[in-house]
Every structure is written in C-alpha cells, then in structure tokens.
Amino acid sequence: MKDNAPAKKILIVDDEPDILEFLQYNLRKEGYEVVSANDGRHAIEVAEREKPNLIILDIMMPELDGVETCRILRSRKEFAATPVAFLTARDEDFSQITALDVGGDDYITKPIKPRVLISRINALLRRSSRMDDDDREAIELSDLVIDKQKVLVFRGQQAIELPRKEFEILWLLASKPGRVFTREEIFDKIWGSDVIVGNRTIDVHIRKLRERLGEEYIKTMKGIGYKFDF
Hints:
This protein is an alpha/beta fold. The chain contains eight helices and twelve strands.
C-alpha cells in the first residue's frame, strides 16, 4: 500500500479468537486498519458503524452464519459494492457455489499462509475499483440508464436494483455494446482468476438479469459467451 494513501479498513468476522488474532496481526502488519466481530449479527452492526472497504466472513458462526450475513449486507445499498471474502474450513463445491451466489467475491479455505491471504485481499481490493477506472458515471443505451454512482439501472421512470455481481456483469457487457465477451473474460473480470466458479454461477446471474431487465438486452452467443445488444 502507498505510504501516502489512507489505510483501507477491513472487517473480520469469525467466532474463533485464535483466527481473529491471526488475521488482525497479519493485516495490520500489512498496513490495513482492522475491525472485528465474532458473529453475523454483530458483524452487521460493526459494518454499519465502520463502513469497511472489505469484509472477511467465516461461514459457520453462531447467531447468523456467514452466508446469511452476506445476503443481508448485499441487500443494503451501502454494502452492495463492498468486497466480501469467505474464509472457512469447508471446501465442498456446494458451499462455494452458495457463498458466491449470495454475493461473495472470493472463497478462501483454512488454513492459509499469511502471504497468500494478503495477496488475495490485495487482489480483491484492486478488483473492487475496476469500474472506477471507467470515467463514465453512467451508460445510456436504448431505454436503459446504468448509473454507476447509484448502483441502479433505470428503464424509463422505473428504478431497478441489482445485486452487485449482476450490476458488474451488466456494466461490463454494456461498456462495449455488440462486443462478445467470452465466459473466461467475464469470470476473470468479475471474479478474478484466483476464484473458481462454475458455469452454473454465471448462468444464474445472466438469467436473473434477464428476468429483471427483459430478454432483449443480453444475447447468448452459443459456445462463446454473451454480448449486450440493443
């Protein structure tokens, strides 16, 4: 991190004190500001108060598990674009798919080496500013206005709220209308090469986008990928 840049704030949520201590030590050593919570309900309170730049969530926790905590946070506008990494001892495929489908950006299994953890966190924070590299505040195509600042899509007078991943996919496709994005490109730009997601995940997001916006905007190029058309 740059010496003159303000420290990014990370919220760590885990019910194991040893894990919290391990994460806090290594992230603070890297220059991050760290706040913590030991269950999902407390995590939501801390997130609302501290407004972290990134959240690390354990999955198995008392009171409220990590998946449900992520679902609640993603439903609130102020956390729609906050990167969320799941850190857990569970490595089953269904757990990873569920965690990513509710809006998780990465799925990190325990145990993990400190340098690998820091690398994943740094990559997440870099990717979270991806849309900021595009100077446009909004994209207007056909009868849609895709507003980056409000994280909303307007169709005429109707405002449509989208989960973060769906909004990012739509912004990516709409940023270059007519251009075909392969599945690999979408995976890499939205989730990053370090995160493994299956075809089912992107299909679910595309299907939900079509349900919310209509079938006419996103076209499937069979065997290749998707494009925004109007």
